[in-house]
Write a structure and sequence with these properties.
heterodimer; A: 319 residues; mainly alpha; ABC transporter involved in vitamin B12 uptake, BtuC; two-stranded antiparallel ribbon; 14 helices; 2 strands; globular; B: 340 residues; 16 helices; 74% helix
């Protein structure tokens, strides 16, 4: 028992991984065709926005802050692409992809500047940004606008053998794991653990924070593309749902809200767990309202478990 | 947060800038800026649309303000404690459900429905507060999860029935034509005003209120002065739940009905009212009076925005900019260098 606990404490994502595996087995028991090759690209494509919004929440949490505007940013990018770029004739991927990613990273950087330079509380700054983004999305496209045929459909289907969703998730993952080769990620974790100590050790805390939020914005931009791929219309109404889902995925995956502990792998398994839970309950015919109940309950239980059994040490001071 | 009180004033400049420094300290102590903003907005509204200065429109603005202020009351307490209550939409939905489906359709006496709401929402809130304190987890995620669970459970209980309306006894409390002891405004305005006064007395003039503020400003110091922080956390989150539930009853009574998403707008607008009023996480200057002013500011502002032909969406954008601007004025945190 102790050895299992040590394992959980050593690997923050182990709990989410175990949960995801259990849920996968249950899913396969209820609908055996769940992982069949024909359904796999579609399944992965609906999973991709969850995972990417989870990714987007992670860097700011690791830096000891929080970004609740990543979900609305993803839906804003979706509306911006479908209702602004495509009608303006900028829908080709050579033009649209760089514009969309630059806008998303720019919004993230703005968050970072508000938090690191203007020194607002992260919750306040990102709440303000959330209002702005939700308002902008509704201004651009109050009602869903259907998108004509465009390049994002690749990410909902597949390229040859490769499911398209692996490209979006893979791109974000590859970016993160190449950043791990640099000093940025260790500086990020140091800043999250204790910004005062990091500052004292010569870490440029301000730059690290801005970069963390920029990276979150970039991931949210990719999430917006993945979202466009499956809905093929502008969905401004999904903003609040995704705002909460991203945080839930990151936290369930063992990323500490106090900062300095966790990673992208945790967010991946957290998002997969939430997705599989929804799939399981839908497949077994449970009412949608009870699915929401289960999702909330899992989140609370996961957080309490993460804070007690799975934490490396019990902290004696509350935030 | 408390840098003004902690850092000593620079010695040489004292003589020259003393009146200014004293004015600045005073202006930060009382919500002067908020009062000025409310007056300016009211003046703007009256000059832009002179027809609005009739009792009916003023009552309507005040009722909407009261609902927002009531929904933001619990959030104010939680924010002073340094947390955030994202379960508010769940509580409001549950309150609306009790008012419309239980008191309205099942004809349960309104008093019993109100009591039930207070017990359920307060109980859930107490549990959240205790969990957050006991396991030292961030309230943000726990309230998020509980809010989702409570919303799901309420929708399951409602079983797709959103057509019921609260009984007449509840509706008269918030309807625009209601009267309070013969005076021509609905009781909700009086209720919220009394809550404001009561909250001011509680926060500033009782030992419990001071203990609560102390816990918010510095958790460890509060525990070392033998304040039972676990009780404070439990009670504050319980109060937040119960108050949001009651707000839900009034919101359903005002709208004469409810829907699945009745609580959603009040989460972020309520938080905006708290922040615009000038209450910041764990701040000693936080108070409910400020939230009342914040709610009035937001309501006046959205009236102006709507009367200028802008949409609901554009008012959100302006809300966002205002939150950022107001908080940049007084809510900035200290530089890492100064905490080193």
């Amino acid at each position: 028992m102790n050895r299992v606990l040590t394992l959980f404490q050593r690997w923050p994502f182990a709990f989410a991984l175990l949960l995801a595996l259990v849920l996968l087995v249950l899913n396969l028991a209820i609908s055996p065709s769940f992982l069949s090759p024909a359904r796999l690209p579609g399944t992965l494509a609906t999973l991709a926005p969850f995972v990417l919004v989870g990714f987007a929440s992670t860097p700011s949490l690791l830096a000891g802050g929080i970004d609740i505007s990543v979900g609305p940013l993803a839906t804003f990018i979706n509306c911006f692409f479908v209702a602004v770029l495509i009608p303006a004739g900028l829908g080709d991927w050579q033009l649209a992809a760089p514009i969309v990613l630059a806008v998303a990273a720019g919004v993230g950087a703005l968050n970072g500047i508000l938090i690191a330079v203007v020194r607002l509380h992260p919750v306040v700054a990102t709440t303000g940004m959330l209002f702005l983004l939700v308002g902008l999305s509704l201004t651009i496209a109050q009602n869903p606008v259907a998108a004509p045929d465009n390049w994002t459909e690749v990410f909902a289907g597949g390229v040859g053998f490769l499911p398209g969703a692996l490209i979006t998730i893979g791109a974000a993952g590859l970016l993160w794991f190449s950043l791990r080769r640099t000093a940025f990620v260790s500086n990020l974790l140091a800043t999250g653990e204790s910004d005062v100590s990091a500052y004292g050790s010569g870490v440029n805390v301000m730059a690290v924070r801005i970069l963390a939020y920029t990276l979150g914005g970039l991931f949210a931009g990719i999430a917006g593309i993945a979202l466009t791929a499956i809905v093929q219309s502008s969905q401004s109404s999904l903003a609040t749902t995704y705002a909460l889902l991203g945080l839930a995925a990151a936290v369930l995956g063992g990323t500490s809200l106090a900062g300095g502990r966790g990673g992208l792998l945790g967010a991946l398994f957290g998002a997969v767990s939430i997705y599989l839970l929804q799939q399981l309950l839908t497949a077994s015919g449970v009412a949608p309202s009870l699915i929401q109940f289960a999702y909330g309950a899992v989140l609370v239980v996961g957080v309490v478990l993460g804070a007690t059994l799975l934490a490396p040490r019990l902290k004696r001071s509350a935030s | 947060m408390t840098s003004e009180t902690l850092s000593p004033a620079p010695a040489p400049a004292v003589r020259i800038s003393r009146p200014w420094a004293r004015f600045r300290a005073w202006a930060l102590e009382v919500p002067l800026l908020q009062v000025l903003v409310v007056l300016a907005l009211a003046a703007w509204l009256v000059t832009a649309i002179p027809a609005i200065a009739n009792p009916r429109s003023v009552t309507s603005i005040l009722v909407i303000t009261s609902l927002l202020a009531l929904a933001a009351m619990g959030q104010t307490l939680v924010v002073i404690l340094g947390g955030l209550d994202l379960a508010a939409p769940g509580y409001i939905l549950f309150g609306a459900f009790m008012a419309a489906n239980v008191a309205g359709k099942l004809a349960v006496p309104p008093a019993v429905a109100v009591l039930g709401t207070v017990l359920v929402c307060g109980g859930i809130g107490a549990l959240i507060g205790w969990i957050c304190h006991r396991f030292s987890v961030q309230p943000l995620v726990v309230t998020l999860g509980t809010g989702a669970a409570l919303t799901g459970a309420t929708l399951f209980l409602a079983d797709g029935d959103y057509s019921s309306a609260p009984p007449q006894a509840l509706r008269s409390l918030a309807s625009l034509r209601g009267t309070t002891f013969g005076m021509p405004f609905p009781p909700i305005i009086m209720i919220v005003l009394l809550c404001g006064v009561g909250m001011w007395i509680f926060l500033n003039r009782t030992a419990a209120g001071r203990r609560f503020h102390a816990t918010g400003v510095n958790f460890r110091a509060a525990r070392l002065t033998r304040i039972r922080t676990s009780v404070v956390w439990t009670l504050v989150f319980a109060a937040s739940g119960a108050l949001a539930g009651i707000a839900g009853i009034f919101i359903a009574a005002y709208g004469s009905g409810w829907s699945q998403t009745i609580g959603e707008p009040y989460l972020f607008s309520g938080l905006a009212a708290v922040l615009v009023g000038g209450t910041i996480f764990g701040s000693i200057r936080g108070s409910y009076t400020r939230t009342l002013l914040g709610a009035l500011t937001l309501t006046l502002l959205s009236t102006i925005i709507v009367s200028n032909g802008l949409s609901e969406a554009q008012s959100r954008i302006i809300f966002g900019i205002i939150i950022l601007a107001v908080v940049s004025l007084y809510g900035r945190e200290r530089h890492v260098r100064d905490r080193f």
